[in-house]
């Protein structure tokens, strides 16, 4: 089983309240399905990019996101899946639930400490 990161590409601005209620319900169902399947590791929504702080190797701190853009990572899932095809299937479900693009990216294999 590999681990995969599913990232929500969220545009700036707010969805209308009715659409947000539907999206929240769909996300709740998706998260319940992930948990029931044993694929769920964790998930979380992120605050707007303006709340970010960038830490540099020289110790300098900078407010805001490192990269400017009209889209930002609005939330993530970390899941386990037997292969990329299974992870992509979860990505398709996440895209349907959020109505937004989802990036699916495998984690590199890392030896445990």
Fill in the keyword field for this structure.
alpha+beta, 2 helices, four-stranded antiparallel sheet, 113 residues
Write up what this structure looks like.
- The chain has 113 residues and is α+β, with helices and mostly antiparallel strands.
- The chain has helices at residues 17-37, 84-98; strands at residues 2-11, 40-45, 53-55, 61-63, 71-81, 102-106.
- Strands 2-5-1-6 form a four-stranded antiparallel sheet, covered by helices on one side. Strands 3-4 form a two-stranded antiparallel sheet.
- The two termini are 19 Å apart.
TL;DR of this structure?
Helices cover 32% and strands 34% of the residues. With 113 residues, the protein is α+β, with helices and mostly antiparallel strands.
**% residues in beta strands:** 25-35%
* Overall strand count: 6
Note poorly predicted spans.
none
H and E string: EHEEEEHE
Strand order of the largest sheet: 2-5-1-6
Number of helices: 2
Principal-axis shape equals: flat
Biggest β-sheet strands, sense, barrel: 4 strands, antiparallel
Estimate percent helicity: 25-40%
Query: Rounded to an integer, what's the Rg over CA atoms?
Result: 16 Å
Break the fold down into its secondary structure elements and pairings:
Blueprint: E1 2-11, H1 17-37, E2 40-45, E3 53-55, E4 61-63, E5 71-81, H2 84-98, E6 102-106
Antiparallel strand pairs: 1-5, 1-6, 2-5, 3-4
Helix pairs in contact: 1-2
